[in-house]
Write a structure and sequence with these properties.
About 20% of the residues lie in helices and about 35% in strands. The protein is α+β, with helices and mostly antiparallel strands and about 475 residues long. It folds into three domains: about 90 residues, Sandwich (Immunoglobulin-like); about 240 residues, TIM Barrel; about 100 residues, Immunoglobulin-like (Sandwich). α3 packs across α8 and α7 packs antiparallel against α8.
């Protein structure tokens, strides 16, 4: 079939669009692969204008630029030996950095040489780039850069020395390493990812992320205390579908949490068990673009920079904000919540009962049936979104004892788990600073025992070494059960 040329450009009324993402299909919905620009799964990114060779026929193009823009689309025809000019209009939906919120994606598997264009195309500001992962090492035949951290466009940052250890126990993501950790000689269990993580944590001021809550080694990792965040907006949540199973992780009850969105709710539920068990760890987000179908930045975490540090974005202030929990995770809605005027991550301290008033600004391009206020792992109350009208009150919470709460908004998208969730707010009342649920601590004690029973290795000495950290974790969870102060 004869070819023609598409000249695609993007226009946005308030500013020049330097880059965007495009999805081209024929009119039957079949994806058309484009090789002239960085391509992944069903889309490519381009610097504002693209020239693409296409076969004769009729097509549709959808152009997006992350969740802060309203997408644009157009239908067009290609004729032999001719050029078709298509201009797609997009519009800014919200300017989150203008309100002090800066987005990052903590799980990116795309080539470092494409990262700057990818980040511009998604209007993303922070991205650790996974360049070593099990038996893959981008640096195997390349010199390790003297400076792994790159700043460009003034306020965009990426680190090309991030890595991932993904084996039978699940996946841990590493940020801030000076060189790749050697994983080439690891088998599925030995040396234990727990040993590698603990050694890495001792060697420097790095950051280790639990990539998903349901991985088998999560219970032990929480007990050993080396992880800094956990991915509740993770790569099983995709742009137009769900990766519906738990892979080699702890399976959910599919009768109670059916596909397609059950896996998303399972991630949330486990996170709530973690908080109930007395572990304070902020939520993170990652898309795994380059492995899963997602674009870069589909799952993202927004961090509010500490105004006491001038509110200026830097690599360090962003991670400090994430550590403090001044954040929310999303793959769609924008969810800005304050409690008694405080941002997520705040610890309310009171000598007695305390009332906490919630206010929010919520912006969404998809329907949200209701906003959920979750207290100590259970829905305390909901607010119909139609009654909310973008901003206003989410009601009042009453705490007579210590605990925590989160605000969550789940859209009614039937194909995927599209949502936003704040990081936790914490409440400490009287002498009881930390609420520890006996049921939640028992949940993780049972979990670590189940994991111990599943671990197998042909070498008895290596098996003993693998199990050592899990037995330490078992002791920790026994203590948590013993010292629990809530049901």
């Amino acid at each position: 079939m004869a070819n023609g040329t598409l000249r695609l450009s993007v226009n946005e009324s308030s500013s020049a669009v330097k880059a965007a993402r495009a999805h081209i299909t024929d009119l039957d919905g079949r994806v058309v692969k484009v090789t002239e620009y960085p391509w992944w799964h069903d889309h490519f990114v381009f610097p504002g204008t693209a020239i693409v060779a296409l076969s004769e026929g009729d097509y549709c193009v959808v152009v997006e630029r992350g969740p802060e823009y309203v997408p644009g689309s157009a239908e067009f025809s290609i004729r032999p030996d001719s050029e078709t000019n298509v201009q797609v209009e997009i519009s800014r939906f919200v300017d989150m950095p203008g309100h002090g919120w800066w987005p990052g994606d903590l799980h990116v598997h795309r080539p470092p040489e494409n990262i700057e264009l990818l980040m511009r195309a998604e209007d993303l500001h922070v991205a650790p780039v996974i360049t070593w992962w099990n038996n893959k090492n981008y640096w195997a035949n390349r010199p390790i850069p003297e400076h792994a951290l790159v700043q460009f466009d003034g306020n965009r940052f990426y680190d090309v020395m991030a890595g991932e250890d993904e084996r039978n126990g699940g996946a841990f993501l590493y940020y801030g390493e000076l060189a790749p950790i050697d994983l080439l000689h690891c088998d599925k269990e030995y040396p234990s990812p727990l040993s590698i993580s603990m050694a890495s944590k001792k060697s420097g001021d790095n950051w280790i992320d639990i990539e998903k809550p349901f991985w088998w080694d999560v219970s032990a990792a929480l007990a050993l205390g080396f992880c800094s965040s956990i991915g509740i907006a993770n790569n099983h949540m995709c742009r137009s579908s769900m990766y519906e199973g738990e892979a080699w992780g702890k399976p959910r009850d599919v009768a109670r949490l059916p596909a397609p969105r059950g896996n998303g709710y399972w991630s949330q539920e486990i996170y709530y068990e973690i908080l109930n068990a007395g572990i304070r760890i902020p939520p993170s987000a990652g898309s795994a673009s380059g492995v899963l179908p997602n674009p870069v930045g589909y799952n993202r975490v927004y961090v509010q920079i500490d105004p006491q540090r001038d509110g200026k974005l830097s690599w360090e202030t962003w991670w400090d904000g994430l550590r403090s929990g001044r954040s929310f995770v999303t793959n769609g809605p924008m969810l800005i919540v304050k409690a008694n005027g405080e941002l997520p991550g705040h610890v309310f301290q009171s000598t007695g009962p305390i009332d906490i008033s919630l206010s929010a600004e919520i912006l969404t391009q998809e329907n949200i049936p209701y906003v959920e206020v979750i207290k100590n792992g259970a829905i305390n109350h909901t607010v119909p979104f139609n009654d909310f009208k973008r901003s206003g009150s989410l009601g009042t919470l009453q705490f007579e004892e210590s605990g925590w709460f989160i605000v969550r908004a789940v859209t009614d998208n039937s194909k995927t788990f599209r949502f936003a969730s704040t990081a936790p707010f914490y409440v400490e009342t009287g002498k009881q600073n930390m609420r520890i649920s006996r049921a939640s601590a028992q949940f993780f004690l049972d979990w670590v025992r189940e994991r111990i029973a599943r671990i197998k290795h042909d070498d008895p000495e290596k098996l003993m070494e693998i199990l050592r950290h899990h037995h330490e974790a078992e002791k920790f969870w026994r203590r948590q059960v013993k010292h629990a102060n809530a049901p």
